[in-house]
Amino acid sequence: MASAETTPLPPQPGALKPRSARRAVGEALDEHFELEPGFVDEVAAALRADDRDFVRSLVGELHYADMADLLERLDSEDRKLLVDAIRDSFNPDVLPELAAEVRDEVMDTLGFEDLAYALRELDSDDAVYVAGKLDPEERVQLLARMPPDTRKLIDLGLSYAETSAGRLMQRELVAVPNYWTVGETIDYLRSGRKTPEKFYAVFVVDARHRPMGVVELHRVLKAKRPDHMRDLIDPEIDVIPVDMDREEVAYLFRQRDLTAAPVVDKSGRLLGQITIDDVVDVIEEEAGQDILRMAGVRAEQDASLYRNVMSTAQSRFIWLVINLGTAFLASAVIGVFEGSIEKLSALAVLMPICASMGGNAGTQTLATVIRSLATRELNAGNMVRVMWKEVFVGSINGFLFAAITGAAAFLWFNDILLGVVIGGSMIVNMIAAGLAGITIPLMLDKMGADPADSAVVFLTTVTDCVGFFTFLGLATWILL
Amino acid sequence: MASAETTPLPPQPGALKPRSARRAVGEALDEHFELEPGFVDEVAAALRADDRDFVRSLVGELHYADMADLLERLDSEDRKLLVDAIRDSFNPDVLPELAAEVRDEVMDTLGFEDLAYALRELDSDDAVYVAGKLDPEERVQLLARMPPDTRKLIDLGLSYAETSAGRLMQRELVAVPNYWTVGETIDYLRSGRKTPEKFYAVFVVDARHRPMGVVELHRVLKAKRPDHMRDLIDPEIDVIPVDMDREEVAYLFRQRDLTAAPVVDKSGRLLGQITIDDVVDVIEEEAGQDILRMAGVRAEQDASLYRNVMSTAQSRFIWLVINLGTAFLASAVIGVFEGSIEKLSALAVLMPICASMGGNAGTQTLATVIRSLATRELNAGNMVRVMWKEVFVGSINGFLFAAITGAAAFLWFNDILLGVVIGGSMIVNMIAAGLAGITIPLMLDKMGADPADSAVVFLTTVTDCVGFFTFLGLATWILL
Q: Which of A424, A477, B127, B419 could join B406 via S-S bond, C-beta 3.0 to 4.6 A?
């Protein structure tokens, strides 16, 4: 691999400069690989001036992911104009990259004929994904315009559950009989017959089309032509049943550093493959959804910035109603002690402190537990140990904050007993917070729900009620 | 690829059965690809009985990721016994998979000699990762036991910032001159000289070792031997500067569906490569950290279940101190209206409701914004639009909950004006919550902090203070 000056090379664009500086058409991307706002404005202006040739020259070289970003950033009207302008050269790979609401608009503008054509060009997993996002009637209309074999593949893909391996897999793959040599495999690949556009591994199958092993491409390249493919396979093969949950698939890929894995039907026959690039999207989505679920935003779609005001308000409303219920519950707890507050109004001033601290300490535990469950660090083997740990942590911080808060309350109201009361209830509520923070997600998980789902509302119900009750209860008992 | 019965095959283990059922040594894994608790107990028992041969036969076939899980689940004493028992066959790939605290213990037990040997066997990115987790003195001791060239590579790796592309990259890669043919490349790979254990792509470099393009392996396999490598390169090349932030790297991989990308120094020379399997870990970590940061748990390490009670309590303490400050701030706001509460104790009963609803509505917005910033859906181009949307959503839900809460308060206390007061403050606080939910993460982002960092504490400060102030203020003005 010595460097050599012997072969004069034709000038190659951009070996050195970062991507953005190389753009033939001005500066579409900034240094963070994001679209320049100026570029978006330029496209919008050209669209409104109906200068379609200029539009096409501007966007002609965009990567499909950047084209998706561009479509998302344009307003609804400009979006339609752009789709019209590039209809003939529309890259179907743009579709899976779009936010749901924007995709619906783009698909509407494309119309069934062009959409059917686009879907034919996509890999089967992407085509199934896009078709799965359509309304049932639209889907029927669309599939009617597709060739029978494509339609069959898409129908089959849609028959698997939405979060299953079946939805994630693509049918296109390279499988060779176990008696083939490396030479035969390479010749087959060179012949270009039915090979997928992109692949990471060759699957070796037995006579009944059951996967015997996976050979990553670098192993094919390093082997000699007469070597047998079956001798190159990894003895450990991870076979994915078609109904496996996609979170499980993602775990397996991460745990085993896989790039491609075979998906099989019930009789063990090779149906398709799942590749690392699909799994990357699953990992990002699943990890990101926890933060939304914990905050009471239901689905990825609910969190979309492209959703309109009314449906966003509506989707958040339900969670807030539940919250209102728990807020009134906390008020009812306070109501029990209304007489005490009448006698000593300082109680009203101090009562939110314990509840607030409990809520925050509990949320810390909650987030840690939700995260540990997602990465499978927390499991049946260490559950009891972790629970005890949280109780200890709660106790330690409970005593520390009891001292701090008690002293502050004493200084503020010049009442030593008030300090004792707030300190005592602080300890109780911090321990309750630690326990609730770990048991709530574990119980949700055990019940088959997502451990993050509405976890905060359950937690704050506990910490508010315990916080108000112990503080006001202790105060009534000790002070009054 | 017709299936053929002609070649009788030797029986191949487990073409059909899922991984766990195939284990030679009992059932180490359950159907979720997790270690069976029974298996862990069996290993622990064998360790305590000092039956090292049995231990080795039990764990001998474990995948390195499962071995890491096993080490994590054993208690500290058994962990040491296990490392001792498998010292001679210790797979260094286990190390990067371990939680920080467990890794420290395992490395201590291994000792410098065996650890130095393990690090030599790792890919450079993993070796740098593990070495980077050591104390400075330990690192010096360790590096002194390594061959000079490995030491130099690790030192160089450690010189890059911890979250930079330089730390993520591995030095091992396949680069060929641009004038080589596919045939020459394959022959070079078959010769087995200096090729990495695993690779996804071949880099084509110019005479000055600057990357001109990336050729994914499937393109090498599909091409004919006389084809030139430079004709196979993707015209769009994404070059990663060595100081690029790893979050940026992850974004680029996702956006462009990359499997491998070249990392270059300032003069554009090829330094190493980043591959998709490293990026998967970054994506998982970064997406997962947001939920912890939002809840006030600082680093991935703070959230570790293996951290001891004292240091966990300590790391959470700081966040809770800040919280205590804001809780007292809210109490001070209430204190201003102590006189009003003395006159009408119902105010104390109802006052947490607006604050609580504001906090929850604001957290919904917050989570959505943090998520949109992470996926780069939210940007300068749509910021103003999204802000207005949140104000509208806050207003709509504010009015709805004003009606519900107002009616409930009226029914409870039979006081129409009290209903008006709580309704009015609900509207104000819901709008404030929406605004705070979007501006807080944006401001944190603008200041160079993580948008999730402590966002909840800032948010609840706003919603508590606004909630108590408007409710008690309106009540004082209207009712008293």
A: B419
Q: Closest residue of B to A386, CA-based?
A: B305
Cβ neighbours of residue B27 closer than 8 Å, sequence gap 6 or more = B20, B21, B36, B38, B39
The ipTM (two decimal places) reads 0.81
**Does the pLDDT of residue B11 top 50, yes or no?**
no
Alpha carbon distance A62, A23 (integer Å): 9
Strands B201-205 and B175-177: parallel
pLDDT at B270: 96
CB pairs under 8 A between A and B: 447
Chain A hits for B261, CB-CB cut-off 8 Å, are none
* Contact criterion met (CB < 8 Å) for B199 and A218: yes
Lowest mean pLDDT among A458-472, B102-116, B324-338: B102-116
Helix (H), strand (E) at residue A448: none
The structure tokens listed for B173 are 């890669």
Q: What CA–CA distances, in Å, run from B463 to A325, B325, B353, B389, B431?
A: 18, 15, 11, 19, 10
- All residues of chain A having their beta carbon less than 8 Å from the beta carbon of residue B273 are none
CA distance A324 to chain B (A): 7
Please name the residues in contact with B275: beta carbons below 8 A apart, sequence gap of 6 or more: B170, B199, B200, B259, B260
Residues B312, B302 contacting (CB under 8 angstroms)? yes
Kindly state the DSSP code that residue A204 receives in the 8-state scheme. E
pLDDT on residue A318 = 85
CB contact under 8 A, B320 and A360: yes
| Sequence-separated (6 or more) residues with CB below 8 Å from residue B187 | none
Chain A interface, mutation test: which of B6, B12, B385, most A Cβ atoms within 10 Å?
B12
> DSSP characters for A282-306?
HHHHHHHHHHHHHTT--STTTT-TT
Which DSSP state fits B198?
S
The two three-digit tokens of residue B340, written as one number: 């009003």
Using an 8 Å Cβ cutoff, are A4 and B179 in contact? Answer: yes
CB contact under 8 A, B186 and A221: yes
The answer to whether A3 contacts B366, with C-beta atoms less than 8 Å apart, is: no
β-strands A201-205, A211-216 pairing = antiparallel
| Out of B40, B350, B352, closest to residue A352 by CB | B352
- In terms of Cα–Cα distance, which of B314, B318, B336, B247 is closest to B284? B247
Q: Which of B33, B206, B259 is opposite residue A251, by nearest beta carbon? A: B33
In Å, how far is B384's CA from the nearest CA of chain A? 12
Q: Each residue of A340-361: pLDDT tens digit?
A: 999 999 999 999 999 999 999 9
